[in-house]
């Protein structure tokens, strides 16, 4: 086959130039019909502040309804130590929750690391401030505090979700763990305001139990929702 024959074959070949104009217009119209302009999220610091405020409101409202018996029994140093620790941890947790809900955000600490830091810090502060090693009514009183704390943690988690519902979690389980930790801190804060039981074992097991159960529930709930949505797609 010579050069002339090759040229003739190429000239006769019908080279595809891509989709027709009408097809492209139909595709554009079908996509444009379902698109809506997206509102920009508020600044991260504002979202984090709203999450912290939601947790504080839940804690204060719960303690106001049940009584501020816990903080009334505390000394000045105990109040400063306990609530300063809770405030700092809440700010850190809220920042991580916001970062987890905004794709591309820099994560300063993992969600599991946040939970370990929060639990360890609170355990150290409570053990240092309260040294009553009795275990009177340990199970009954503990279950009551655990239930009340988890109820308020759930309310704080719901309010936080309302604040961050327009975000998107790239890693839902990690975001759920961080959100559960934040909500758990709100539940612990309410118990510290209300509960007058300063037995060390009670505080370390049942009050901190609210934090651990809340964080675990947040991660488990996110994993369940992710699995459910994946199964529906398949």
Topology:
Layout: H1 3-12, H2 21-32, H3 44-66, H4 69-73, H5 76-101, H6 111-129, H7 138-164, H8 172-194, H9 200-233
Helix pairs in contact: 3-5, 3-7, 3-8, 5-6, 5-8, 6-8, 6-9, 7-8, 7-9, 8-9
Describe this entry's structure for a reader.
The protein has 234 residues and is mainly alpha-helical. It has one domain. It is 76% helix and 0% strand. It has nine helices and no strands. It has helices spanning 3-12, 21-32, 44-66, 69-73, 76-101, 111-129, 138-164, 172-194, 200-233. α5 (76-101) runs antiparallel to α6 (111-129), α7 packs across α8 (172-194) and α7 packs across α9 (200-233). It is elongated. It starts with a helix and ends with a helix. The model has no long low-confidence stretch (mean pLDDT 88).
Helical coverage, percent range: over 70%
Order of helices and strands: HHHHHHHHH
* DSSP helical segment count: 9
Uncertain runs with pLDDT below 50, 5 residues or more?
none
The main pleated sheet reads as: none
């Amino acid at each position: 086959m010579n050069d002339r024959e090759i040229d003739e074959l190429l000239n006769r070949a019908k080279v595809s130039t891509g989709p027709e104009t009408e097809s492209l217009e139909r595709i554009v119209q079908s996509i444009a019909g379902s698109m809506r302009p997206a509102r920009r999220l508020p600044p991260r610091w504002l979202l984090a502040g709203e999450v912290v405020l939601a947790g504080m409101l839940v804690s204060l409202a719960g303690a106001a309804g049940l009584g501020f018996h816990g903080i009334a029994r505390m000394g000045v140093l105990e109040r400063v130590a306990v609530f300063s620790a809770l405030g700092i941890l809440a700010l850190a947790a809220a920042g991580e929750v916001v970062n987890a809900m905004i794709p591309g955000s820099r994560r300063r600490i993992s969600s599991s690391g946040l939970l370990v830091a929060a639990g360890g810090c609170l355990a150290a502060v409570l053990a240092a401030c309260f040294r009553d090693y009795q275990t009177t009514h340990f199970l009954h009183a503990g279950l009551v505090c655990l239930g009340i704390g988890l109820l308020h943690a759930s309310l704080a988690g719901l309010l936080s979700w309302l604040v961050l519902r327009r975000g998107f979690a790239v890693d839902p389980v990690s975001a759920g763990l961080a959100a559960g930790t934040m909500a758990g801190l709100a539940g612990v804060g309410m118990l510290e305001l209300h509960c007058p039981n300063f037995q060390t074992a009670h505080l370390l097991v049942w009050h901190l139990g609210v934090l651990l159960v809340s964080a675990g529930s947040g991660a488990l709930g996110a994993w369940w929702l992710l699995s459910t949505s994946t199964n529906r797609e398949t």
